[in-house]
Amino acid sequence: MKPWTRNEFCEHVYNxxxxxxxxxxxxxxxxxxxxxxxxxxxxxxxxxxxxxxxxRTVDLIVxxxxxxTREVLPALKFDFRLLGNHESSARQxxxxxxxxxxxEMKLFxxxxxxxxxxxxxxxxxxxxxxxxxKPPIGDAVSWAASTFQHGAMLFCLTGDRVNSREFLRxxxxxxxxxxxxxxxxxxxxxxxxxFTYTEACNMHYACTYAxxxxxxxxxxxxxxxxxxxxxxxxxxxx
Length: 238
Description:
The protein has a single domain (about 5-230), classed as Collagenase (Catalytic Domain) (3-Layer(aba) Sandwich). Helices cover about 40% and strands about 15% of the residues. The protein has six helices and seven strands, in the order αβαβαββαβββαα. The protein has helices spanning about 5-20, 55-70, 85-95, 105-115, 165-180, 215-235; strands at about 45-50, 80-85, 95-100, 100, 125-130, 145, 150-155. The strands form two sheets. Strands 2-1-5-7-6 form a five-stranded mixed beta sheet, with helices on both faces. The chain has a two-stranded antiparallel ribbon with strand order 3-4.
């Protein structure tokens, strides 16, 4: 990765955010339609969990998501709706299985395009969290995945992962960072002038720490400047 000046880094993040809000960095859904990522605009996140997932695990995940979202964007206070193993989420998860493993991008595509988010069909914009005990497709290591573009997060709590509460909290903080706009890992931008790279950052790919480094905090700041500026420009028709 090339060295970046601080201004180059901030401008890059800002521009990627604006492009994302125009749908330029969002893959088409299974219906071959590009939906804009407005999931956050109503400040609502719906949480689905399989019946076998303990309530204390759901609470841990929700608390960590709330903690990181408040840290990244204090003005955005999400309302979390705990819906358990709702039939709609069960259908989406079932439709995303390949030999018993979850294809997360297929699941996220279904979440993005569902009628539940379509205001013209009586829906409401919101984010979706899926907490399952199924493994991700072709990946025995990953615990979770998420993207801002889809406004969705998936947990794959296989085996005894529900009992590793401290690491699960760090994973949740990390995935919330991706949900809130950090499209890369901290270690993918090591050479940014003015920021000392450290592995002791939650957005490092290993996510063994809970705190954010200064560079990643700056990433979130400029991401949301780009998102909000693009929304305002679209509302003004410019």
